[in-house]
What we know:
Blueprint: H1 2-20, H2 31-48, E1 53-57, E2 68-74, E3 79-84, E4 93-96, E5 98-101, E6 105-108, E7 140-146, E8 151-155, E9 161-166, H3 171-185, E10 189-194, E11 197-203, E12 207-212, E13 215-223, E14 227-236, E15 239-247, E16 252-255, E17 262-265, H4 269-275, E18 278-279, H5 287-302, E19 307-314, E20 327-333, E21 336-347, E22 351-356, E23 362-363, H6 365-371, H7 374-377, E24 383-389, E25 397-402, E26 409-413
Amino acid sequence: xxxxxxxxxxxxxxxxxxxxxxxxxxxxxxxxxxxxxxxxxxxxxxxxxxxxxxxxxxxxxxxxxxxxxxxxxxxxxxxxxxxxxxxxxxxxxxxxxxxxxxxxxxxxxxxxxxxxxxxxxxxxxxxxxxxxxxxxxxxxxxxxxxxxxxxxxxxxxxxxxxxxxxxxxxxxxxxxxxxxxxxxxxxxxxxxxxxxxxxxxxxxxxxxxxxxxxxxxxxxxxxxxxxxxxxxxxxxxxxxxxxxxxxxxxxxxxxxxxxxxxxxxxxxxxxxxxxxxxxxxxxxxxxxxxxxxxxxxxxxxxxxxxxxxxxxxxxxxxxxxxxxxxxxxxxxxxxxxxxxxxxxxxxxxxxxxxxxxxxxxxxxxxxxxxxxxxxxxxxxxxxxxxxxxxxxxxxxxxxxxxxxxxxxxxxxxxxxxxxxxx
Length: 422
């Protein structure tokens, strides 16, 4: 192999010499000058929108939180003013931006901006996202194309497509309309009606996860003043869906181009419980429940570990590698994770029967059940429970009360709770 390389190196000068007389200058200007002109043109376009730009911003490389409306206005001297639906509609924060070359044109929000950094801060102010990661959004964007009519960006970190169009109308009025729609159209549980099929969907932030043919189909969307716009078209049950308009009086979503496709909310609390992930805080449980949970804590401690997460729901929250069928008591103990499998049977509108089912376990669930006293840990979840909540439209918790043991109850939170024993 070394000889082959040597021969090639010996031949290289002759090849270069032989080809030299063929070379021609393809450009009249150097690459540096061309890039400087391209950056100047980008600055002219960005600052040329008199009323700023409406940005469809998607944090997280998996679009796990969906999309958010951000309005930005650029000046020629490097200033940028930002508003967002995640803040009061009249709030505007000004910072700086830069344009630079890095394998193409890059737009960077290069000084701290409370609104823009909300989506990238590793400690999100509202506790969204995992510890030390937040919503994992971008602050730097490759400029894929830029005209007066639209600017297409790509997140440097996430690779997400970010679309900007000239903003029409008053900033505050637009954001207020989006926020008002969000407050009346956000349901945890939705049924998508396509022909004769009813497909159950669970919402989390601006993301709907449909369970279809034993698969989880994740559908990120962004709010408009009239409904939902999908990040990309969804093909399901032989139909293609691009978004929905929302009718508040009937609480019905109608597909933008096919009125036969609709989506409606589902309200029974037991259905909502079974569809979601609900996080345990041990102090928010009955005396008998706490006794059992402490046995599970002791099992982890015997392994030299601390319980970091305990929840009831789907294994996909822990790992995309877990099968879609994995469901039950999920946990992170030290650096290990798993699901102890359960089945759930809804009874009427407000009761659920939960039973251990090893076939739905995943990860290290079976090992901890067998070797670390997690058979004791899960006992509070076995039985028939009455399910109640604070708001069936947008619940913040689920209260499970054992029909046969009043000292066995758990108030499980929709928000992530870390270190449930603290």
